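Give me the fold.
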Amino acid sequence: MKRGKRMEKTKKIWLNGEIVNWGEARVHVTSRTLNYGIGGVFEGLRYYNTDKGPAIFRLSEHIKRLFDSAKIEDLEIPFSYFEIRRACMDIARLNNLKQGYIRPLVFVDDEDKMGLGPIGDVKVSIATWGWDSYLGEESLAKGIKLKTSSYTKDNRTPERALMWKAKAVGNYSLLHRAKKQALKQGNDEALLLSEDGFVAECSAENIFFVKNGMLITPPQSAPILLGITRDSIIKIAQNKGYGVIEWDIVKKQLYAADEIFLTGTAAEVTPVREIDNRKVGDGKPGLITLELQKIYFDIVHGKMEKYKRWLTYI
């Protein structure tokens, strides 16, 4: 079974307003986020090398989503939006990588409390590291194998559906099990359905399929994280003249898709060549997928003036 992607460690981490060495950024073992998975939300951002130096992709949108996640989880982040935004830039600059990944994490570290109940001491860390494409560099060119999971995402009530809009630590226990199951079965990623049987998303990516030149993806009302890469691809596709529809998808529609691809900060734009042991199209990444993938990489590397507002140089 494939293990997690190896990280290229950096020297420093931003921890609750201070810069500490990588090995000194610690949390107590009685942290209730660690023990119960409560009171924890996070973000994932990438920065890429450009002709003008490293640039973070859609920094403002990511920090906004971090604060939205905290509100959904009833967490009070002890720093302002602007402080967290600046800290992401500062720690990326300090660690001096040309490109990498940024992980802001909000967590509870109240070592003098235990049990469920009101949340106590909330802290924030921001780490950066070097990371290749989440599903592997080869996957970007050749595509991956996708498997529908036996695990489903609960959306039986509005309250349950809302919880998937938060990038919350606790949500990833289910997603981890789905991913692990897919890997054990010889696949690269898991596709999760909602409790009512519609396509939701993968363990760490949103999903699109292409049929007759039209892009289709689950709607915002589905139990999905509202991905920032998802939003970017929708805007890019529309600007290129492609129709994009957000609607409830039945799994069998994916079997007849011309193309399928996944989007996410870590996975970027990854083609799917096979789903549930069925070839997608001719079993190779589709032309629309590769076109959107190329535009995406041109944007994040600062090669498209039209999208320069999405880049924050550090």
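The chain is about 30% helix and 25% strand.
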